[in-house]
Write a structure and sequence with these properties.
Layout: H1 5-31, H2 37-43, H3 45-54, H4 57-74, H5 78-100, H6 105-129, H7 135-152, H8 157-173, H9 175-200, H10 221-233, H11 239-274, H12 279-291, H13 293-309
Helix pairs in contact: 1-2, 1-3, 1-4, 2-9, 3-4, 3-5, 3-9, 4-5, 5-6, 6-9, 7-8, 9-11, 10-11, 11-13, 12-13
Length: about 325
């Protein structure tokens, strides 16, 4: 059967239209997941990424802009529309072009994480500046949450109230670090989904090493160590300087503690593979690492010390 020249000419148009519809569907669906909007944003760049990788940057831009229009109109929020444009253009079109040009996976991951962290911190700063969120509201929410958790754990009303006050103070202190950590998780998810989509479509993609071989550059440890020093030594500063040191130190610990927990988990996976432990054990261990505070802390220190002791004897990236 002979190919129809008209069909061949229309094939790119049909393909771009398909990616545009996918982008529109994902954009509308994201409005139904506002509490999980960061996760929805991690998926949104994929159609623009595939359109760019398969055709050209112009096709990717069309798909990217198509995702922003329904968000801005239906949510009556130009800010959300602008956020979608930034994500889809930089992590859809931009990531596809960089991948095609042979940029390493680590730098693409840094791009994804950087965009999400910038958007996350920028959004919370804008919310405070426009009074959409106030410190008093955050205090009330955090106190109510901790009070319910304490009561659920069976503590007395007096103990629950004390725990709520302590949690309230800590919550306000580490809010930027918490936002940054969650944004990094969304950036990581975006990177993995993007590269997996390119690979499954047979398009140029960045080789990603197995998770058990992930390792951070040695200089990243300075972020954790500076945070630890500031948190422990804030009492040596006077007045406001001490509060600033504590604030900076706690947020650095939250951010870099989360990063090194992931590296610690990679070390654990390496030993799981070495001793042939089955998948369910990995799944249970991962869930405990995320939700059990003690294991989270242990893995953070394992990941940090792996920087110097290189437990897995991996070849370090120059």
């Amino acid at each position: 059967m002979e190919d129809n020249p008209r069909q061949r000419a229309n094939a790119p148009v049909v393909d771009i239209a398909r990616y545009t519809l996918q982008s529109l569907a994902l954009a509308v669906a994201s409005l139904l997941l506002i509490p999980f909007y960061g996760i929805a944003l991690a998926v949104l760049p994929v159609p623009a990424l595939l359109a760019t990788a398969k055709h050209n940057a112009r096709a990717g831009v069309v798909v990217a802009v198509a995702a922003a229009v329904p968000v801005a109109v239906l949510a009556a929020s130009p800010d959300l529309g602008a956020m979608v444009v930034i994500v889809t253009l930089s992590l859809g079109v931009g990531q596809a072009l960089l991948t095609r040009s042979g940029v390493r996976a680590s730098r693409l991951l840094l791009l994804c994480v950087g965009v999400f962290v910038g958007l996350g911190l920028g959004s919370i700063a804008l919310a405070f500046a426009t009074k959409a969120i106030t410190l008093a509201e955050l205090n009330r929410t955090s106190a109510a949450l901790q009070l319910e958790l304490a009561r659920y754990a069976g503590t007395s009303t007096k103990q629950a109230a004390q725990a709520a006050r302590e949690f309230q103070q800590l919550y306000v202190y580490v809010l930027p670090g918490g936002i940054a950590s969650m944004s990094m998780g969304c950036g990581l998810l975006c990177f993995l989904l993007s590269q997996l989509s390119l690979r499954r479509s047979g398009l140029p993609n960045a080789p990603i090493p197995p998770f058990r071989e992930w390792q951070l550059p040695w200089y990243m440890a300075w972020g954790f160590l500076i945070g630890l020093a500031a948190t422990v030594g804030y009492g040596f500063f006077d007045g406001g300087q001490g509060r600033v040191a504590l604030y900076v130190g706690l947020n650095l610990l939250v951010v870099f503690g989360s990063i090194y927990m992931v590296q610690g988990l990679a070390v654990a996976y390496w030993y799981f593979e070495r001793f042939k432990l089955v998948g369910p054990i990995k799944a249970i261990f991962t869930a405990l690492a995320i939700f059990a505070q003690l294991l989270f802390l242990v893995l953070t220190w394992v990941g940090l010390f792996d920087t110097w002791f290189n437990y897995r004897k991996l070849k370090r990236e120059e």
